[in-house]
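Structure ticket #2291
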Amino acid sequence: MSGLLLLIIVVVVAFFGIGAYNKLISLKNQVQNAWKQIDVQLKRRHDLIPNLINTVKGAMNFERETLEAVVAARNTAIAASTSGSVAATAAAETQLTGALSRLLAVVEAYPDLKATGNVAQLQEELTATENKIGFSRQLYNDTATQYNTAQQTFPTMLFAGMAGATQVPLWEITDELERAVPHVDLSSGPPRQTLQGKAGQRSLESPSDADV
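Resolution: structure written out below.
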């Protein structure tokens, strides 16, 4: 009788162990896949930026500092994306978002340039890409949170070492401008760009304002 009871206990433990192990491996793979989705969208944005710069710099007397800031931020973001560090990538992409927002604010000050098909199309593609980055980032954070939580809950935590599971960092937004929602007004009115965020509404109406 005792032998049968021991066998039942072993079977139950093995059942829970296999389930916990498979759950951790599944979540680990989902986290990796979610990060790859972010990487795809970031690369798309990195590829669009040179096209935008080449389009606008030949049509107007742009501020050199504005263009150089975008180029430098893009190069930093590309380097960070190859490091595999979530924190470094998030910080670099935040800087790129800020530099790109200032560039678009300056573009708004040139109605003729804004009306050209290439610039309008690139702005639209960048906006669509930004939205996809946001969705991918949310998916990654949700999946990473599930993965981290599974490693801290019983009985899954007992098998975390066996599955090679470790806590993964979330993509955290620390810059208020990154938290803000950019809105570019493409109407016929005076060019302006507003940022809606917790800190209130911020308007960028001229190249000088964009340098703030």
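Closing remark: The helical segments are 2-57, 64-81, 86-107, 111-115, 117-152, 176-179, 207-210.
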